[in-house]
Amino acid sequence: MKQVKSVNFRELDKKVKEYWKKENTYKKVKALNEHGPEYYFVDGPPYCSGAIHLGTAWNKIIKDTVLRFKRIQGYNVLDKAGWDMHGLPIEVKVENEFNIGSKKDIETKIGTQEFINKCKEFALNHLGHMQGQFENLGVWLDFENAYMPIKRDYMEMGWWTLKKAHEKELLTKDLRSGYWCPRCETSLAEHEVRGEYKEVLDPSVYVKFKLEKSDEYITIWTTTPWTLPSNMLVCVNPEFDYAYVNVEFENGTAETWIIAEKLVNDVMKKAEKNNDISKFSISKVVKGDSLIGLKYIHPLLEENEKQQEFAKIENVHTIVPGDHVTLEGGTGLVHTAPGFGEDDFNIGKEHNIPVYAPIDDNGKYTDSIWKGTFVKDMDESVIETLISKNLLVNSGKVKHTYPHCWRCKTPLLFRATEQWFLSISKIKDSIIEQGKTVDWVPDWVKTRYVNGVSFVGDWNISRQRYWGIPLPIWICEECGNYEVIGSVDELKERANEKDVDLSDIHKPAVDKITLTCSCGGKMKRTPDVLDVWYDSGLAPYASIGSKKLKKAQFITEGNDQVTKWFYSQHALSAVVFDDTSYEKCMMHGFTLDETGEKMSKSLGNIVSPDDVTEQYGADVLRFYLLSANKAWEDLRFSYSEMDETRSMLNTLWNSYAFSANYMVLDDFVPNNEYFKHVKDEDAWILSRINTVAKEAVEALEKPHLHVYTWALRDFILNDFSRWYIKLIRDRTWMEKNDVQKLSAYQTLYYVIMKLISIMAPVTPHLSEEIYQNLKTEDMPESIFMNKLTIESEFINETLEKDTEIIREIVDSILKGRDKAKYTLRYPITKITLPENIAETVEKYGYIIKEQGNVKEIELKEFEGNITVKPNFKELGKIFRSDVPKVVAAINSVAPNELKEKLKSGNFEVSEYEIKPEYVEFRVEIPENIVGVEFSKGNVYINIEMNDEVIKEGLVREVVRRIQSMRKDMDLDINEKINVKLEGIDFSSDYLSHIANEVRGNFVESLKSDYNQKWTIKTPNEETYDISIDIEKNK
After folding, report:
1. Superfamily designation of domain 197-403
2. Is 13 in contact with 619 (CB distance < 8 Å)?
3. Contact 207/222 with Cβ under 8 angstroms?
4. Is 696 exposed, middle or buried (0-12, 13-18, 19+ CB in 10 A)?
5. Is the pTM of this model over 0.85?
6. Alpha-carbon dihedral 86, 92, 94, 96, rounded to 10 degrees
7. Where are the domains of the chain?
């Protein structure tokens, strides 16, 4: 054990990390627990696409804290780090790096193989940087054997999983309308779009379509005019009422428009802005059912020759029923283009309508006069065309939310394409029931998860990209039959090409392989790659190379992952193993700035974890993030709260330094025999630290990390530093081998060692540093090789409750002193306490005297002047009009007598029964008394001062100033000094006491090394001008 100085947490971090690296501590801990019970954790993989942000840091700190806790419990923790390395997050970054504008550029300017190489290089480079950032936070994970979806073994597990899906008839290829990114030129799944809706300003267009066999018009509303050239149907709700609106124009002409009756006024109000309408009226109202089957003339028939062909098909350009039609806006008639919307697609399929989606992968039209035009660039032209044909009812703008690409942030299109799907709809009910068995933290996430899953459709797993796990599906060019390959060995066996290197099965190498179909035709691989969420969904079993289900005992990610990663891994495990892949799942919130705004470059409010740790050290950030609020709530990052956390850890360090330095001075060697001599305050702190340990373990098991850290903070600040250290400070000045001193040292040693064991999961660097200084030769070499135990025999609930009362009393005395401006250095002659706590005060009154600086404690009812105040609210309920008579009866009895009578229950006066709740007794307190209420009654403090009180207070004033001067001179604790005091005359007893407290000798003359002059003002307004000289005792 060595003496301890002040701490710099950043430097401490570096020192401890160097120690761990030198001693290979992480691996030693794993080896130590190798035969312990297994604890399986799956790391939700961050994308290797840049530096970590504060949210990523929070996520890893949560994980590291839980896993460190499990290690010190003796568990063999399976803790592979994970990385997301495929997909659009990487591709988009590489495209930007090489100024690539399209998929075509990838193939023509750089080449597929080079692009794949660059994506791999980019991912690996960022992996290394991010790993360093995580290690800087003190994170212990198995980075050496981290799972990487770009490795062949992992990719093979993706193939094996897809083959299992195929064998269970859960894999299908289908033409469906879904999300399409025109910039990335690929389809996207619905879970990739959740949370990616942004507010946009789009056209708001009302259009009239002429009915084929009459001069009447149906009206529709759309925010995507570019889809009108592809219109195939119009939907109505059969149950709604539709009005035939006679519209008269200023030029004397008239038309009939069909609009849902409830929306007529809203639509006509808009129509009047763009048309010279003189008046309108409803001629008749019919049910939507009567409109079904009516045919209309496509509004852009001449502009799109393809529509002229479709018009010849029986059900095309017809009004059909649709349950999705509402009266929340629009006209009550819905424009339907089956190629550009899920509802549209399903309606079209139901009525055998051709799926017409005339746009290419870049989002440009392939038919009509708008051929070659990007769809959003068509809007104004389409509107102008409608105006020229007198078919526009109204045109404006509307703000609404619209889906964007989750990586490049481009507005998405709804487009019908052929894709590969996992048929989740077939197993959704099982997934929901399995999800209900998970231990969700907090428990309300279960409802959110189940509700989210209930709305998911089949999973679109195919992506028209390059950097990903290639779909292991080969399709025959002759008969269209397809086969799913489940492993590299199977592919080698089936391949026509025997010399292809399959050490890497990414594109384009795997694309070169052909198979032979049973019909004799050539089979080529479908060019698509798998959704990157499929990659991470494989993690529970692919990360450990297992084809058997091993449920994770703990996973945690941010709240955006509830229906993303939590779902994707469950879905794949359900497909393969018919079960969920995890037992306990915790959701955490997002990190925001101090005002609650999302952090972003544009707002300039991003907080870098590297910057924070450089300023504060990793442990301060770790403790702050886990204690700022409940983990599942969004966290508003605050530098002032970081300062408070650092201050709290500094308080712990100072308490440790105080303890260690005195122990070193006295050559203290820990020995459990000293526990035989503990005092009440020692027994209490031994009980408290084990109670806190018990609470901490319970909180970490849940895990409720806020409960864990709040319990630690409260113990450090209130129990240990502000209470126990103060109680035993005088014992550290006793003779070297005094049993009271030794028992205090033994208690301090035990409490600090127990405390850092509990804190080690959240403050690993600080805990390790203290442990290394305090550990004895027979202890494990690292705190993380030392098992966390709870000594229940030390826990004494009665003692803790009694001490809580004593602390309340002391706090009340301090409040009373503040009220009276009576500082703690001046003793109080007497306090009066209620008799109901006599037993507790008789046992521990000495603590009240020491900590409150009180000379005498009196246990009795305070004898002040008692007055009675009737409780008119209660009296009114019972006596109503008789209240004045009851009040008179109460006032007829002396207050002291009434109080005594009511102590034994109800009391009858003038035929009225008086109950205790009918009155309130107040005590008038004399000027020399201050009363303070606490949970058991009141503390009454006598604030009268006499000469003895003043002298004792001045002694403390002088001691405090000499100690302050010692600190200024940077003197060691045991360094003796000579002191010369002028301005106050003390008796020899008082001088002797001061000399003992400050380790000094009072002398008449000295060669001063340091002089300070002070003015002391006592509570009774006396003033003393003093001068203190100190000379080092050489």
Report:
1. Valyl/Leucyl/Isoleucyl-tRNA synthetase, editing domain (3.90.740.10)
2. yes
3. yes
4. buried
5. yes
6. -170
7. 197-403, 865-924, 947-1032
d(CA 742, CA 727): 15
Whether residue 609 contacts residue 601, with contact meaning beta carbons closer than 8 Å, is answered with: no
Annotated ligand binding at 601? The verdict is: yes
Q: Where does 57-107 show beta strands of DSSP type E?
A: 76-78, 80-82
Residue (of 171, 147, 174) closest to 159 by Cα position:
171
| Contact in structure between 545 and 157 (CB atoms under 8 Å) | yes
Phi, psi values for residue 940, rounded to 5°: -110, 120
Cis peptide upstream of residue 358 (ω within 30 degrees of 0):
no
Which residue type sits at 915?
K
For CA atoms 413, 415, 420, 421, the dihedral sign is: positive
What is the dihedral angle through the alpha carbons of 397, 398, 402, 404, rounded to the nearest 10 degrees?
40
Structure token pair of residue 98? 């090489």
d(C-alpha 326, C-alpha 827), whole Å: 80
pLDDT < 70 regions, the chain: 1034
Sheet-wide strand order for 514-516: 482-484, 473-476, 522-525, 514-516
Rounded Cα distance, 386 and 221, in Å:
13
Structure tokens at 94: 């590489």
Greatest pairwise CA separation for the chain in angstroms: 124
Q: Are 460 and 419 a contacting pair, CB within 8 Å?
A: yes
Q: Which among 679, 676, 616 is positioned nearest to 647, based on CA atoms? A: 616
What b/e readout covers 374-396, taking b as 16+ CB neighbours within 10 angstroms?
Answer: ebbebbeebbebbeebebbbbbe
Calculate ∠ Cα 785-787-792, nearest 5°: 160
Q: Which residues of 612-627 are buried (b: 16+ CB within 10 A; e: fewer)?
A: bbeebbbbbbbbbbbb
State the amino acid at position 327 in one-letter form: L
Instruction: For residues 229 and 306, give the distance between their C-alpha atoms in angstroms, rounded to a whole number.
Output: 9
The confidence score (pLDDT) of residue 896 equals 79
Distance CA 610, CA 136 (A): 8
In 3D space, the residue among 1017, 855, 1014 whose CA is nearest the CA of residue 949 turns out to be: 855
Per-residue model confidence (pLDDT) at position 562: 95
Quote the CA–CA distance of 116 and 505 in Å, as a whole number: 11
Q: How far apart are CA 124 and CA 259, in angstroms?
A: 59
d(CA 1014, CA 1003): 19
Q: What whole-number distance in Å separates Cα of residue 234 and Cα of residue 287?
A: 15
